[in-house]
């Protein structure tokens, strides 16, 4: 499974590097309105696409990570409560001991 994950990440990285290399033209980006104009940068299109991809990916990844952590804690707590409530089976009951005693022949 680790090999497949590594191959997928290598393919994604290669596609991303190819996209950035093909789109190296500069584009104007206006970030924040100031009193008389905008905060202005000229960045390559590939870098802009990568930045906005990460801007959308990172919060969703963090939400997924937090959710998985919460659910694993909840599952562990439920499993522990079931273990605490489940009674241990007795070694032998009186009727089982009586039945075993009547089945064995006595050496009289």
Describe the structure.
By secondary structure, the protein is of the alpha+beta class. The chain has helices at 2-22, 45-85, 94-103; strands at residues 26-33, 38-44. The protein has a two-stranded antiparallel ribbon. The longest helix is centred in the middle third of the chain and has 41 residues, at 45-85. 0% of the residues are buried.
Strand fraction equals 5-15%
Instruction: Encode the helix/strand succession as letters.
Output: HEEHH
Gyration radius (Cα, Å) is 33 Å
Low-confidence stretches: none
Query: Could you tell me how far the N terminus lies from the C terminus, measured between alpha carbons in angstroms?
Result: 67 Å
Q: Which of globular, elongated, flat, extended, rod-shaped describes the shape?
A: elongated
Q: What percent of the residues sit in helical stretches (DSSP H or I)?
A: 55-70%
Helical/strand content category: alpha+beta
Main sheet characteristics: 2 strands, antiparallel
Overall pLDDT score: 86
| Order of strands in the sheet with most strands | 1-2
* Total strands: 2
Number of helices: 3
């Amino acid at each position: 499974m680790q090999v497949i994950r590594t191959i997928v990440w290598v393919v994604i990285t290669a596609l991303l590097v190819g996209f950035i290399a093909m789109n190296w033209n500069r584009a104007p980006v206006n970030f924040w309105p100031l009193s008389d104009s905008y905060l202005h940068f000229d960045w390559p299109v590939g870098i802009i696409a990568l930045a906005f991809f990460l801007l959308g990916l990172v919060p969703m990844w963090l939400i997924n990570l937090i959710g998985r952590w919460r659910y694993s804690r909840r599952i562990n707590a439920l499993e522990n409560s079931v273990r605490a409530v489940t009674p241990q089976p007795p070694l032998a009951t009186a009727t089982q001991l009586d039945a075993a005693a009547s089945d064995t022949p006595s050496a009289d």
